[in-house]
Amino acid sequence: SPVIRLMLMQILADAPYQFNHRTLPEPQYDFIVVGAGAAGSILAARLAETDARVLLLEAGGPAPPETSVPGLMPLTLGADVDYHIKLNTPPHLQQGFQDNSSFLNIGRTMGGGTTINAMIYCRCHKLDFDSWANQGNPGWDFESVLPYFKKSERYTGIVNPNTEKYHGRDGPISVGPVSFNSTATEAFLKAGRELGYDVVEEVAPTRSGFVLQLNSIENGVRQTTSESFLRPIVNKSNLFVLSGAPVTKILFDDNKRAIGVEYFFNKKHRQVRARKEVILAAGAVFSPQILMLSGVGPARHLQEMGIKVLHKLEGVGRNYQDHAAIYNLPFAVTDGVTNSIFDFLSPKNLVDYIKQKSGPWARPFGVESPSYVKLGDGPLDWPDVSVPLMNTARSNLGLIVAVSDGDDLSLETFDRLLGPLKGRDTIAFVPMLLRPKSRGRVTLKSTSPFVQPNVDPGFLSHPDDEELLIRAIRFSFSIANTNAMKAIGAKWLSKPLRGCEQHPDTSKSYWRCFTRQLVSSFYHPSSTCKMAPSSDPMAVVSPELKVHGLKSLRVVDASIMPQIVSGNTAAPTFMIAEKAADLIKRDWGYPVYPPS
Ligand SMILES: Cc1cc2nc3c(=O)[nH]c(=O)nc-3n(C[C@H](O)[C@H](O)[C@H](O)COP(=O)(O)OP(=O)(O)OC[C@H]3O[C@@H](n4cnc5c(N)ncnc54)[C@H](O)[C@@H]3O)c2cc1C
Questions:
Q1: ipTM for this prediction
Q2: Which residue ranges does the record assign to the Glucose-methanol-choline oxidoreductase N-terminal domain (predicted)?
């Protein structure tokens, strides 16, 4: 509520900057960046290092104060800073959710996903990027992109001679190890060793095993790309940031050159011109929506929608990938070994946070430690499954999540899965696929830019994905059955899901039924504007991120990933923006200082 937000603004010295302007943008800029999310905020800031004039347009409003507090992350889900898109899934899937489908959360505010996400800083695997390069994208192999990962990072952890060369120490985004591990997390890492896995550093290029997590948090305050990159340069005269200004269309001349955009601000449609380039950074759902609304995309779909085809590009909105996950595999644990909802409600902990930025409010909410393992077939040592430990499961959290409308399980499923754990300390595993073979699609629902597009995530449409997710569930149970986890009392108490009772308890057919009912998003939509050479029928952008067949238009965000990375998508998106900034500067003759 506005009153609570006002109170928080008074209490929190580090509330996000408001980026308010009293004037409207000028009629023309050199570069127009669409979307101030993970990628857009970085890109606009880097372009403004030159003397070019840069306009950054963001659909959402300023980041509200609660977003700066790591422990309050669940409050943002389903709130006004979240697009909260109901997924389109076939009727045999997701029956465990309200109305048979779950939500996809996407940030709609300054900083985009970085303002509402779980702040996990993940470098992913060397082979992710080598495989991008092998698909015809020179310059995107691991060795070439590593400097761009390091460029945005300000690592605050101690020096480790084995991994120091993979860290950046001078970038704008503060990254550090989790400030506190619960007893449950210690047990989880021990369980990994018991199962024969190493405990490894997140930035190791071939990381495989149980991982010590890194977070983008500094002194108890969330680090977003808008706070880290834009706030320090708000007074630069060549950068104009406008929030609350959704772009509705790209404007083209007769030569298919992007010459500006149409946007909506203060109840009016307006136009602004770009002298050099328009750059879409609206994320994997909205960059394809804007392209399609502008007549760029799959011809038949555009015609069906009554949109004049300016340029046929079959790949726009296709090739959609997300880390399909079972969000909640909850286990009861001994009281006190994990974070509890009551820690958040204690007045002492609130005062600690306000005074010293310490305590549970200062910690990343939820995931403290992931594991990356290979459970599928294939010759390479390239993990295909991740099972993170959530140190506070939803049963414990029922209260908060229900208030924020973020929990979308049906009441019946909630009751069977989490009911038996009510009032107990719990942990949950989140088994997920790192490189799903299924592909989904973003299509238009309406020609209105204010109607969210359809998102069909394609979950389990490839049969191998279902098999692997079942293996991932079983792997979660092997973790729970280790001595280390038994020592903290890990116990499966959930009742069989309705509709799955006919299958013998914990049999493969039971888990198949369970998987189909509960598969959902891990909030990592990507790959809908695939970077690939034009010979690839799904290609949307070139390795320079220029939209094929059009001029002066690029896409720079998570949508360009040819294949989703094997881990959380924010840090790879920072890298994409850092690299794109240099590609653009070089093209226009601005000085480029290659990162070390
Ligand atoms: C709940 C949640 C938890 C997550 N947890 C993690 C995590 O812990 N670690 C991690 O690495 N990743 C995490 N992610 C994913 C990560 O945040 C995203 O992958 C990342 O933000 C994608 O960056 P992007 O630049 O492609 O898009 P976004 O960050 O989504 O930015 C796109 C921006 O464009 C704006 N926009 C959209 N349409 C328009 C328009 N028409 N005009 C103008 N602006 C527009 C949006 O409002 C948004 O601000 C999480 C995501 C969510 C939602």
A1: 0.99
A2: 283-297
Place of tokens 């999310």: 37
**Tokens of residue 365, six digits:** 């909410």
**Could you tell me which of 395, 377, 374, 396 has the C-alpha nearest to residue 385?**
374
> What does the buried/exposed string (b/e) look like for 389-409 if buried means 16 or more CB atoms within 10 Å of the residue's CB?
bbbbbbbbbbebbeebebbbb
Using alpha carbons, list the distances in angstroms from residue 414 to 76, 94, 328, 374, 406: 21, 13, 10, 30, 13
For 225-373, list the strands marked E by DSSP.
239-242, 247-252, 258-265, 268-280, 296-297, 311-312, 325-326, 329-332, 367-369, 371-373
- What is the DSSP annotation of 14-74? TPPP----SSPPPSEEEEEEE--SHHHHHHHHHHTTSS--EEEE-SSBPPPGGGG-GGGHH
Of 547, 491, 400, nearest to 184 by C-alpha is: 491
Contact status, residue 400 vs residue 406, Cβ threshold 8 Å: no
Is residue 360 helix, strand or coil? helix
Nearest-angstrom CA–CA distance, 4 and 264: 29
CB 221 within 8 A of CB 14: yes
Tell me the CA–centroid distance for residue 60 and ligand 1, in Å: 11
Q: What is the mean pLDDT of residues 12-39?
A: 88
Instruction: Kindly list the protein residues whose Cβ atom lies closer than 6 A to any atom of ligand 1.
Output: 34-40, 57-60, 77, 105-108, 112-114, 116-120, 122, 246-247, 281-284, 286, 290, 523-524, 557-558, 568-571, 573
For 259, phi and psi rounded to 5 degrees?
-115, 0
Pairing of strands 173-177, 153-155: parallel
Determine phi and psi for 497, rounding to 5 degrees: -70, 150
> Do residues 327 and 520 lie in contact, with contact meaning Cβ atoms separated by under 8 Å?
yes
Residue 593: CB partners within 8 Å, gap ≥ 6? none
* Residue 52 C-beta-side C-alpha neighbours within 13 Å: 29
Q: 107 Cβ partners below 8 Å, 6+ apart?
A: 37, 60, 81, 82, 83, 113, 114, 115, 116, 117
**How much distance in Å is there from the Cα of 566 to the middle of ligand 1?**
17
**Token output for 141:** 């192999």
| Residue of 27, 95, 77 whose CA lies nearest to 55 | 27
**Distances, alpha carbon 122 to alpha carbons 226, 262, 558, 570, in Å:** 19, 35, 14, 7
Atom of ligand 1 nearest to the CA of 225: 29
* pLDDT in the model for residue 182: 82
The stretches of 195-253 forming alpha helices (DSSP H) are 225
Please give the Cα distance from 460 to 10 (Å, whole number).
Answer: 47
Q: Which domains does the chain have, with CATH numbers?
A: 2-587 (3.50.50.60)
Residue-averaged pLDDT of the chain: 92
Q: Which residue has the higher pLDDT, 405 or 345?
A: 345
φ/ψ of 222, rounded to 5, equals -60, 140
Instruction: Check residue 398 and give its pLDDT.
Output: 47
Which of 211, 286, 323, 404 to mutate to test ligand 1, by most ligand atoms within 8 A of the CB atom?
286
> Is 301 noted as a catalytic residue in this protein?
no
Q: What percentage of the chain has pLDDT greater than the value 90?
A: 78
How far is the C-alpha of 540 from the C-alpha of 286, rounded, in Å? 14
Arithmetic mean of pLDDT, 13-26: 80
